[in-house]
Design a protein that fits this description.
Length: about 375
């Protein structure tokens, strides 16, 4: 990783990315994981909540940003080989950071074994999607990329619905017995998410990464659109129209293949790609076209060091659960429990206390991001 000043870019891109990262940190760090407002929980299985929008939004944003960064590097003289090496290096670093989060705190205070360490994860999927999108950006044009996005969606739909699972048959979409579960539980045996809806399944698993490639490419296509010579007003209108169309299409697809974040179904990819377009078009209109809503620009603090702040937030959260506190005459517990019970649960209702803790946690991460911004520390992963 290196430090450097950020390049000039769309205000809306940094703000939208920052708002997405802030929401990601918020939903990951409640005061109590068992007490949360419904919108701040993932859907148990099929369906969706606001929380389920976070990860696809981040992949979509990454794809859009890639169209600008790759063009900039090519303009500066980068060859296809150097771009590929850069993508490989960046993917490897992001994947390694994901493994670091999974391994932390390395057995200190909690049991740990490489034999059972989770291999997939949020950053791991980001790394793989980035690499696939990079290869397509380097080696193909937009028409081929569109065909690939359709291929990813159709192939996954075909596999999940028609390939039989031993002992369960074909087309199962329940937590236990679907094809994604079977592949994860077979190949990742012992290395999947411990709190998944079914043992052996991983929400960032192997097969369900295929439609996530399409999610990333939807962002790439938006980046192409923004780089055209059309007026900003026309760009906004067509993004909004395309987004609404995709939301409707995803809703229609839901009749045959449920919108499901855990499985990252093709309908989920299309539906969330549409919402990303709609939300981004609003940010673009307010910040880059009308240049209003200046308070929203504060979210760019998160957007300028997105991966770094996410990684630090995950490590900090785990640290608070590992550190034990034994107050005199009190009940022993974790530092997280002590902070939550003393500062929030002692005077707020359970739901509001859990939310207030999460907001305070986001505030701490914002302060770190602000310090990095003031000192011109922009970490490129």
């Amino acid at each position: 990783m290196t430090t450097a000043k950020p390049s000039q870019r769309l205000i809306s891109l940094d703000v939208f990315r920052g708002a997405t990262v802030a929401l990601m940190i918020l939903v990951n760090n409640p005061g109590s994981h068992s007490i949360r407002y419904p919108a701040l929980r993932h859907a148990v299985w099929s369906g969706w909540t606001m929380t389920d929008m976070v990860f696809p939004f981040f992949l979509w944003i990454m794809g859009m940003a890639m169209t600008f960064s790759f063009v900039k590097r090519q303009t500066a003289g980068a060859t296809g080989r150097s771009l590929l090496l850069h993508a490989l290096k960046r993917s490897a670093i992001i994947f390694a950071l994901g493994l670091l989060i999974n391994a932390f705190p390395f057995g200190i205070g909690v049991p740990f074994s490489f034999a059972t360490m989770r291999i997939p994860g949020v950053l791991q999927r980001i790394a793989i999607c980035y690499l696939v999108a990079a290869v397509l950006l380097i080696a193909t044009g937009i028409r081929v990329q569109i065909l690939f996005s359709l291929f990813f969606l159709a192939t996954y739909w075909f596999l999940i619905k028609l390939v039989p699972v031993p002992g369960y048959g074909a087309g199962g979409l329940e937590p236990l017995g679907n094809l994604a579960w079977y592949i994860d539980s077979t190949i990742l045996h012992g290395h999947a998410f411990a709190w998944a809806p079914a043992k052996g399944f991983d929400p960032e698993g192997i097969l369900s990464t295929i439609p996530a490639f399409a999610t990333t490419l939807f962002g790439v296509f938006t980046g192409y659109w923004l780089r055209t010579e059309r007026s900003r007003e026309k760009k906004t209108a067509w993004m909004l129209l395309a987004g609404v169309t995709m939301i409707v299409a995803g809703t229609v697809m839901n009749r045959w293949l449920p919108i499901n974040k855990n499985l990252w179904t093709s309908s989920f990819a299309v539906f969330m790609g549409g919402w990303a377009l709609v939300c981004f078009s609003a940010f673009y209109w307010l910040l880059d076209v009308k240049r209003t809503a200046r308070p929203l620009e504060k979210f760019s603090i998160f957007g300028m060091n997105a991966i770094t702040l996410y990684v630090v937030s995950e490590l900090l959260a785990m640290t608070l659960f590992v550190i034990r506190v034994n107050p005199a005459g009190g009940v022993p517990g974790t530092l997280h429990d002590r902070i939550y019970s003393s500062l929030f649960a002692s005077w707020l209702s359970p739901l509001n206390a859990s939310l207030a803790y999460a907001i305070a946690f986001v505030g701490v991460m914002y302060l770190l991001g602000w310090v990095m911004w003031k000192r011109n520390w922009f970490v490129k992963v």
